[in-house]
Structure formats: C-alpha cells, structure tokens
Fold each of these.
Amino acid sequence: MSISMSRTRGIFLAFLGTLGALGGALNSTALAQNAPVPQPSVGKPTGGGAWSAQVKAKSDPAAKPRATAIRLTGDEKRTQVRIDVTRQIVASLFTLDAPYRAIIDVADLEFRLPATEGGRGKGLVSAFRYGQFQAGRSRVVIDLAGPARIENAAFTPAAGKEQGALTFDLVRISAAEFAAIIGGTPPPEADPKLRGARHDETPLPALSAPSIPPGTPPAPVLAPGVPPGMAKPRPVVVIDPGHGGIDPGTVASPTVTEKSVTLAVALQLRNILLQGRHYDVQLTRQTDTFVSLDQRVRFSRQHAADLFVSIHADALAETGLAQAVRGATVYVLSDRASDDAARRLAEKENAADVLAGLAAMPASVEDQVRNILIDLVQRETANYSATFRGLLLANMRDRVPLARDPQRSAAFKVLKQPETPSVLIELGYMSNAEDLARLSKPEGQRQIASAIATAVDAFFAKRDAKLER
Ligand SMILES: [Zn+2]
C-alpha cells in the first residue's frame, strides 16, 4: 500500500482582527456561543492540522444564503477574492498544502453562479471550484499558484446596489513562511475561545451508518469464502457513483458532468437490481454530495458488501484523439497498472479527495491492523473481482461499446477492499461525442445499467454454485 508523506498544513486565520469590519452585523453573543467546535475525529491526521476561526453573523433562519458571483482581482503577489452572497454567512477559511489550496467552508450555501464561472484563475488563484461538501456544508476550493496567506477576511453587509460579500486577500509568502506559520500554535493575540479551534480535515460522516472506531478489526469475512449455510439471505451490492458535490469529475458541459452521469446510471442500476428482489442494494451517495474515497470504502465494509461496483466516466485531455477513443472499460485493483493510461487514470480518480479540499491522510492504525488480515483474503477476493470483470465485459459487449482494450487494472483507492470483490467501471469517454450523447441520455444510461445488472446476476449465480459444491 502507499503511504502518503504529505502533511496537512494550515494557517490560523486571525478573524478577530477583522471583527471591526463586520460592524453592526456581528452578533457577539452568537460568536461566543458558536465558538468553533473541533470536528469529530475519525482517523485524523497525526501531524500538522489546519487552524481556522469562524465568524457568526446575525442570521435570518428563513432564507438560505446564495453565492451569486466569485470575483478575483489583483496580481500574483496579492489577489483579492470576493464572494457575493445574498445574506450573511458563517464562514471558515483555512489553507492546505500538497498542493497549496485555500478552503472556504460555509454552512448551507447555495451556488447560483454563471455556468461559465469556476476554473478560470487570476493572480495567485490558478483555479477554483465549489459545491456541496456534506449535507449542510458547502465549500469553495481555491487552487493556489504557490504558498499564500489569507489576510483581511471580512464580511461586508449589503449596501445600496452592492450585494453583501465575503472578501479576503491571498498574499504570496515563501514555502518556509507557510511551513513556519502552521507549527500548530495560533497567534498569541487570538481569543482564547478560538484557541484550539483546530479544523480537523476529516469530514463529518455524511453517511448514516455508524462509524467504526480506529483499531477495530475488519468485519468478519462473509463472502466470498463463507461456509455454505451461513450465507446472508440476500447478497449486499454496494453501488458507488463516482464524484459528487464539490467534485464534479469530468466536466463535459455546464449541465453534463461525470458526477451527474454516474449518479443517474447508479440509480437506474439500483432500480433494476431491486426489481428482482434478490439483493440488498446500497448506494454510497444518492444525491449530489461529496463523499470521500475513504468513506466509500468504509461504507462498503460497514454494509459487509458482497460486491462493490464503482461507476465513473473517463475523458481524454488530448483533443486530437478525443473522437477516436471511446468505449467502456472495467478495472480491478492492482498495484501494478495494466498500462500507463490506466496508471494515470487511477491517479486522477484518486485525487478526488484532494480536489474537494481534503488533506492527505497518513496511514492510520486502522490500516495497519487491517493489513495483517488483508493477505489472508485478498487473493481470493482478487479472483472474484476478476471473475466479475469478465462477466461485465461479456454482458456489456453486445449492448455497450467497449474500449479497444477494456480489461484493465490499476491502484484505485476505492477498490482497496480486502473482503469485497470490487470493480471500477469507466462507462465511456465523455470527450467522445458518441459516448457523451449515450451517457447523457436516460435511455443510454438504462442500457448500460441493465448490462451491469445482468452481470451481477451472473456473478452471484456463479459464486453460489461454487459455494454449494
Ligand atoms: Zn471519475
């Protein structure tokens, strides 16, 4: 397994210095009552950590705030960011490294930005993206051209024709300064109420399933390899629609994104599988929300999945090849990628968490405990995964265009499941006009979902026949 060496780095944001700018808008009682609360820690980073502070402004509980524009001005030394919002917001700002990013978290912010907005950078901002991060929490992730500090963060209430706005500056600093700031100690002038307001970058569990404390041994191996007679009444199939929320995946157009295609196909697949009443079908996400790769794997384990199907759609960056390369591919886990393209794809998909503004996680104790047991079962699991990949390709062949070399393997994080046969399906290339047309229409989505469903049936028929021998 790979061990990430990157550390979480953050900058404590001394918001108190900006309170004056909030003027009468600030409700100081609310600030005291709403002093930041450390996030629940599930496998939280051991070193570093990001610091943040929050400002609670007066709020009208009836209206949900909306962001209507994100404006960038300035240059590579100092870049001003202005986020226009329809009402006052509670914001939490911090920075991360590996790569350098600035994160703005806001409770329940809706984004009503022009479709063209996002991606275009200026000055210290190389790109930005936004969306739901978890239920009730929205996020803007700003990719920085280099190490930077957040300064002058303030909320300006609406005045005259100007909308209210969250504004702040990004100021270029050296890598050494960035590293020095984060030593873990907030500036001494910080309010004691805010001290220790460490913003742990572990996301709140977005899924209803109970979280497993670190160090808990893995769930018992139920299948494959379960003794006959002990099999669960209905096999559990976990469908994993790729991306979501702040992480759109491949963006073909403002309305057609990988996250919307994968969710549509996943919902169709669930409907088809539920019709037969043979399976307990679970989805890692059912709405347009962000779910980390770690949460997806944990979700599968908590449900003791018998089969895990991750759904994605690929795209080629090289426009010259875009119309020539098309078709679906199916991946299983391997530390050695089947080819360079497979390796690059896995790296791209594995970066989903980074894109959404999660800090890189060091290997946790949980992982170490699990590793001891992994070898015992993963060979058999890998065999089952490869069997399912074969069945998928056989069933998809007649109904869905396949890529020229559709049977592949690579080190996808989401496939690292020692107990559960797991595959990742790239439905096709969103960079190819024919594939895109098929993937963005309900009929095309239904076709591919039904091919996958047939393969699921074939898989369990085969597995159960083997177990009964
Ligand atoms: Zn993807």
Amino acid sequence: MSSLQLKKPALHPELRFESKRLGTVVCFSPEVVAHFVKHRQQGRIKTEIGGQLFAQFVKNEVRVIRATGPNTTDRRGWAWFRPDQRIQNVEIKRLFENGLHFVGDWHTHPERKPSPSSWDLESMEDCFKKSRHQLRAFVMVIVGQAMFPEGLWVSIHRNNGFEKLAINMNGAVSAIEYSSKPQRMLHEG
Ligand SMILES: [Zn+2]
C-alpha cells in the first residue's frame, strides 16, 4: 500500500521518566523529543530558548504531547531566558480548550549535562500559580547539549522541593539507539 511507503519511521523514541515519590510516569512523545533536539543550544543557536509543556493525563501517566515556544517576543541571552508571559497565558487557555493541560516548562542550557540554576528553582513558584490541573507537581525540562538522555534534565516540583526523575528503563533501549546517531556527535566538544 502506498500509505505505508509514505509513512516515515519515527526519528526519535518516546522518552519515559518515572517519579519514585509519586508513582507517576512522565513521558514525552516523539514529536516533543524532536522539538527539544531541534532547539538544543549549539551550532547556530546561541541563546537559551524555551517554552511550555502540555499533556494529557492517562491513568498514572502524564503524556506530554505538545511543547510550545520559542516565541519571538521572548527575551533571551546566552545563559538566561525570560518568556513572554502574556503569550504563554493565552497558550494555556487555548490548549486547555483542546483538552491539553499545562504541566510545566522547558528551556535550554549552554552545558552538556544540564542542571537547574537557583533562578530556575525559584521560578517554579510562578509555575504553581499558573497551573490548575490535577497533577500534584510541576514538570521542568532542561535541554542540554549532550545526547539524550544524558543531555536532558527532567524534574518535578512541588511546594516542598523537587525530585529529579530517572529515565524509565523500559524506554531506554530506544533511547540508546537514538543516542548513537553519529551526526549528533559532530557538534560535541
Ligand atoms: Zn535554566
């Protein structure tokens, strides 16, 4: 059938992360993973960029299927990023009408293995104010320069602190396949 020939193989696997504390799985669809990869801070991309994460809730899973941003009106520099909150609030309302819940933020860092800055951790307070979904935590993704999953920070935040999520090994086979792609290594170093 011709439709089979047109169907491209998924370039990126779904990535699954697990919260030991909440028993929740946070997974990122292939499209969302592709969005992160595309915006990694390397090559021509000289500034931090980012956006918002939107998900559907299925049983104990938070399925992140949409990553928005960057917006042209965001303010950004080499190691900082301030999104346009007016546009972000409009996004939250618009996607909520389509059944997608705002669950967190993503942004890039100019480092191989990303970890949150103190500002990143403090800004999670803002996120709580914006959120009104049933997830009892807020997702923060930081996209580093190294290949995934090494180059991806995923944490969930609550009033009383945060938890760095571990990649779920059931999905790790495809993650290893992904990380061995040679063209990505040319930019490393
Ligand atoms: Zn940051």
